[in-house]
Amino acid sequence: VWIFGYGSLVWRPGFEFTSSKVGFIRGYSRRFWQGDTFHRGSERMPGRVVTLLEDCGACTWGVAYEVRGEQIAASLKYLNMREAVLGGYDTKVVKFHPQEKDGGEPILALVYIATPQNPSYLGPASEEDIAAQIIVSSGCAGHNIEYLLRLADFMRYFCPQAEDKHLFSIEEALISILPCLYYNEDSLEET
Questions:
Q1: What are 108-117's pLDDT values in tens digits?
Q2: What is the CATH number of domain 2-185?
């Protein structure tokens, strides 16, 4: 079984796997439209994590993990809790295209997608509003800023040829807000 990750699974799968491949799926755009009140946020201040939006002209880059034998049941049990129960995601099967030139035919892979019907779905917002929400959110897996920056780093280092305007625009908005927060904290200390 192959499992495709496009968010935190790219750097922290949390389950045993036999092999992994960087690549993409077609027909979806990655969006920071899913709320998170456990891993990267709280009930009071939900974080923003990614989901996939159907978009016939787009592709989303990530990592596919191959699980075999006893790894299958353990990984699916773990991911069902992490992604479905705690995250509000549903599973789908997609065609994964490996980045390697000799990757062969596309591979069928499971993917977790949060839909607008789940109670944690936040939907669209401006890049600046998403960045502002990310800056103030933290959960049991860490700060929401870490989630955004690790995902941007993954794209830069493993998929430098790919574009993800939404992701990099939010990163840019976050970086432009941070000096303002730092300045305001210093100003408060001086008074």
A1: 999 999 999 9
A2: 3.10.490.10
